[in-house]
Amino acid sequence: DQQVKQNSPSLSVQEGRISILNCDYTNSMFDYFLWYKKYPAEGPTFLISISSIKDKNEDGRFTVFLNKSAKHLSLHIVPSQPGDSAVYFCAASYFPSGSARQLTFGSGTQLTVLP
Amino acid sequence: DGGITQSPKYLFRKEGQNVTLSCEQNLNHDAMYWYRQDPGQGLRLIYYSQIVNDFQKGDIAEGYSVSREKKESFPLTVTSAQKNPTAFYLCASKSTGGFYGYTFGSGTRLTVV
Question: Following DSSP, what letter does each residue of A40-102 receive, concatenated?
């Protein structure tokens, strides 16, 4: 049962335009969300996060939006650059009783920014 | 310079052999994790450890084993019982408090020949 879903395996965008990557979740207990970026043959690196008490968090060209009622979050990259071409993973976290926080990852979206 | 080191970066194994992947961190993180990534698929959790001398199976633990004798180290052994071991393996760690995200190593590409 996939609790975090990224339904688009790939996305192509022209350089300079906006990239929008989407993520849906099913577990209403999730209270913290993160985006990771991964280049081939490298480990994922943290990009941006958002707490469930917020609906938007911005860091430079990257903005994450959270819609709790729809259980949906999205990552906006504006303007997109060729160096942004990578796999983007959405991840969600909560604090289960009797255990420690863990991340649940989506399946990833390959973003290709065309020059 | 704190971080997670995975070695080797590339590893070749003959069928029927066990092989151990190394993961060392100097971040003083309590929790450590092993993930597997296959082409076109996401990150699947193999094993995790919240404290020394304790670890739990993840979603795809069959054919793998781990140990956590030291806080800094969490080696993963891919045994001959793992039917499709060729994959990219990622180690991660997390502190108990503070930032909820994981810090990842650079990965090990295992190929069965």
Answer: TTS--EEEEEEETT-SEEEETTEEEEEETTTTEEEEEESS--GGG-EEEEEEEEE--TTS--E
**Minimal Cα–Cα distance from B85 to chain A, Å?**
16
Q: Are strands A109-114 and A10-14 parallel, antiparallel or unpaired?
A: parallel
Residue A115 distance to chain B (closest CA, Å): 24
Q: Is residue A25 a contact partner of residue A34, using CB atoms and an 8 Å limit?
A: no
Residue found by looking up tokens 């795809």 in the block: B60
Give the Cα separation of A112 and B87 in Å (integer): 23
Element containing residue B5 per DSSP (H, E):
strand B4-7
For residues A12 and B22, what is the distance between their CA atoms, to the nearest angstrom? Answer: 36
pLDDT score, position A82? 96
Q: Tens of pLDDT along A20-41?
A: 999 999 999 999 999 999 998 8
Question: What pLDDT does residue A89 have?
Answer: 96
Phi, psi dihedral angles at A66 (to 5 degrees): -125, 125
pLDDT digits (tens, 9 = 90+) for B75-84: 999 998 888 9
Q: Which of residues 24-83 of B touch A (CB under 8 A)?
A: 31, 35, 40-43, 48, 50
User: Cβ A107–B31 below 8 Å, yes or no?
Assistant: no
